[in-house]
Amino acid sequence: MNDNTSINYELSLKYWAEIPPTLDGVLGGFGFISNADIEGSKLFLKSIFALDNGPAPNVALDCGAGIGRITKYLLIPSFKKVDVIEPDEKFINAIEDFVGENKNQVESLYKVSLQEFIPEKKYDVIWNQWVLGYLTDEDLVLYLNRCREALTENGVLVVKENVTSSGAIEKDEADSSVTRSLKDYMRIFKKANLKRIKQCKQTNFPSGIYPVYMFALVPNTRIPELSYATRLRSTHHNASDL
């Protein structure tokens, strides 16, 4: 496993404590990409719902929610209830005001870091975006394991993160985070007993920033349900063999 134990959780919390609770603040000065980001996420989520055994639209979890950008624009329109995790006090205090008229759909607010969070088993979609770089490999695998166990029967774990083009882990000293490669994520997903059922690259982002990938993950023990058309073909084929 790549050594990223130099990630300092206290330093990360200190960094975000100095950031204002605004769209530009939570996006590191890239607030202008929010609309394109949300549109890409909406398409990805729509494709997950369209699966033969897609998740129910009941309860979602927004991990590292910041001021609730993803909760407001992506999850609330798609789910009956949304829970959020956010370790920074001023961000979590800003969520209800930022979400506005639909804040009644925000159910539980967890002021806790991801490496310490133990979710209940009730989530149809768990959405992780631009937060996993703050966890060491070891803590990330443990966290993903807990998320996997918290999924409902057809629940899906979504990861949307920057990836390096170099193929190596790259460290950001300012906020004590890392950016991993696609290969790193594949290795970590495997260790967490997760399998990819969909993968997509975010489009319409400016050049000069990291590529962003979306992954839909489910427990690797889950047996895929055949579509009706596939079952018909299989039945027809078997009958013709008799």
Radius of gyration (CA) equals 19 Å
Helix content: 25-40%
User: Which sequence of strands runs across the widest sheet?
Assistant: 3-2-1-4-5-9-8
N-C termini distance: 51 Å
The poorly predicted ranges are: 227-231, 234-242
Explain this structure:
By secondary structure, the chain is an alpha/beta fold. Helix content is 35%, strand content 23%. The chain contains eight helices and nine strands. The strands form two sheets. The chain has a seven-stranded mixed sheet with strand order 3-2-1-4-5-9-8, with helices on both faces. A two-stranded antiparallel ribbon has the order 6-7. Strand 4 (123-129), helix 6 and strand 5 form a beta-alpha-beta unit. The protein is globular. Mean pLDDT is 92; it is low at 227-231 and 234-242.
